[in-house]
Amino acid sequence: MAPITSRRTFLTGLVVGATVVGFDPLGRSWVSEADADTTTVIDVPPLDGELLTDTASRDAAADDFGHIVHRRPFAVLRPGSVGDIVSMVRFANAHRIQVAARGQGHATFGQPQVDDGLVIDMSTLSTVHHVRPDSAVVDAGALWSSLLTSALAQGSTPPVLTDYIELSIGGTLTVGGIGGTSHRHGLQVDNVLELQVVTGEGELVTCSPHRRRRLFDAVVAGLGQSALIVRATVRLVPAAELARTYLLPYVDLATFTGDQRRLVAEQRFDYVEGQVLPGAGGWTYLLEAATFYTPPDAPDDDRLLDGLGYEPGSEQIADQSLFDFQNRLAPVVAFLKAIGVWFHPHPWLNLFVPGSRADAYLSDVFAELTPDDLGGGPILLYPFLRARLTRPLLRVPDEPIVFLLGLLRTAPPDDQNALTEMIAGNRDLFERARAVGGTQYPIGSVPFSRVDWVRHFGPEYGRLVAAKARYDPRRILTPGQGIFR
Fold first, then answer.
1. Do 351 and 246 share a structural domain?
2. Which pTM does this prediction carry?
3. What is the residue range of 115's domain?
4. 265 and 287 belong to one structural domain
5. Which of 108, 123, 138 is the last residue of a domain?
6. Can you give the pLDDT at residue 27?
7. What is the pLDDT averaged over residues 439-460?
8. Tens digit of pLDDT for each residue in 126-146?
9. Does residue 388 contact residue 182 with C-beta atoms inside 8 Å?
């Protein structure tokens, strides 16, 4: 069993032959038993959960899905209650200890990590508390798959789900949460009714679009800079029983993106995404669409497919339960884990590209990109409507239609040169996207300076700075994003 701290033993094993028992606020250092008699030791608050200091727990918190950046904390809190988070954030704020919250650790560039600080493992707070026809109250560490299961039992569903639903609710609400239904419903952050958060000063606050709006706007898609989400009330919509999926192959980029634009503008399908796939002598394109229905009603395939320019006779149409459709990546992930690829480095790139410049930008990118540049990972490409987005800190091009471009790269596990080249390629593609009005969806692996962040947030940067000063004045929260370094 991993060691558990008491009030007098916050950290252990940081110095060979010594045990750290507290924090010295004057010397800005952790105090070992050998020095405890000569220094005032600050006690750790009593906790309902565990404060882990063993090597395995700290090493796990120094990694994420990207397996690229490694920042090792002094301790990992596994809270037994929201009160534990309040207590430890207050302790950290008082002594200027940096703090990061970690959901499923699915970031790819060290965003939920912190050097020599405290990582809060939110997975221990994972309860789905209440499910009503139009809303649910959930802990931040709950998975979207758990909420979906509970909601479907009541005839409801979250309006927007990411492709991979084994992600924490607090995690995706911190960054945005985009999915194939975003052209209808916006992102997951556009479907939040209320939040319970812990500010950088350790205050437990409830906020919403109608109550403490300034704090709410600073938290949703706020990258953990002003407060940590501990509980959320999210919108639900009526659920259909089945999903009919349509896989439509294309050989021409402009025809492919033109049909995608048409479909999201017409709201013809409930779900619209797309992939770019390697083909003979170049790239091919796969439009993925779905409509949700409950028998005896059934989709009119001819109407839904009318006028689209996919390769005739190549379409694939299938029905499955709504849950199986939303959980469709589960067997893929199980396979990737079984062969070890899931644990390789993942220098992902996610960009928002303005619709008016998308075809020219994408043509240049795909002319240069090869399957080897991806390491076997997929390319995602799909549009959504800017008008559906309501959260100010989610920075996207100001055009009616915006495309998400996702290069889900996988690097060889022992090839630092290949990894470095992929990250450099990400930066290059980002700069070229920015030159045509694009922005980064900040979950990927793109080196960013403070100047980059100022440009990223644009007119909202001043509001973010003001929110940081008001709610996290000592700047202890989520340093891994590098916004205020």
1. yes
2. 0.93
3. 20-123
4. yes
5. 123
6. 59
7. 97
8. 999 999 999 999 999 999 999
9. yes
Residues whose CB is less than 8 angstroms from the CB of residue 417 and which lie 6 or more positions away in sequence, other chains included: none
Which band of pLDDT confidence, cut at 50, 70 and 90, is reported for residue 485?
confident
Helix/strand/coil (H, E, C) string of the chain?
Answer: CCCECCCCCCCCCCCCCCCEEEEECCCCEEEEHHHHHHCCCECCCCCCCEEECCHHHHHHHCCCCCCCCCCCCCEEEECCCHHHHHHHHHHHHHCCCCEEEECCCCCCCCCCCCCCCEEEEHHHCCCEEEECCCEEEEECCCEHHHHHHHHHHCCEECCCCCCCCCCEHHHHHHHCCCCCCHHHHCCHHHHEEEEEEEECCCCEEEEECCECHHHHHHHCCCCCCCEEEEEEEEECEECCCEEEEEEEEECCHHHHHHHHHHHHHHCCCCEEEEEEEEECCEEEEEEEEEEEECCCCCCCHHHHHCCCCCCCCCCEEEEEEHHHHHCCCHHHHHHHHHCCHHHCCCCCEEEEEEHHHHHHHHHHHHHHCCHHHCCCCCEEEEEEEHHHCCCCCCCCCCCCEEEEEEECCCCCCCCHHHHHHHHHHHHHHHHHHHHCCCEECCCCCCCCCHHHHHHHHHHHHHHHHHHHHHHCCCCCECHHHCCCC
| Separation of alpha carbons 412 and 345, rounded Å | 7
Q: Which of 214, 239, 264 is the last residue of a domain?
A: 239
The length of the chain in residues reads 485
> In the prediction, which pLDDT does 9 show?
42
The pLDDT score that the predictor gives to residue 281 is 82
Phi first, then psi: give them for residue 99, nearest 5 degrees: -135, 140
Contact between residue 248 and residue 310 where contact means Cβ atoms under 8 Å apart: yes
Radius of gyration (C-alpha) of the chain in whole angstroms: 23
Distance in angstroms (rounded) separating the CA atoms of residues 481 and 460: 17
Name residue 99's beta-bridge partners. 118, 477
Q: Which long-range contacts (CB under 8 A, 24 or more apart) does 141-149 make?
A: 141/103, 141/168, 141/169, 141/170, 142/168, 142/169, 143/104, 143/167, 143/168, 143/169, 144/168, 144/169, 144/172, 145/327, 147/234, 148/323, 148/326, 148/327, 149/323
Domain containing residue 264: CATH number: 3.40.462.10
pLDDT at 32 over 80: no
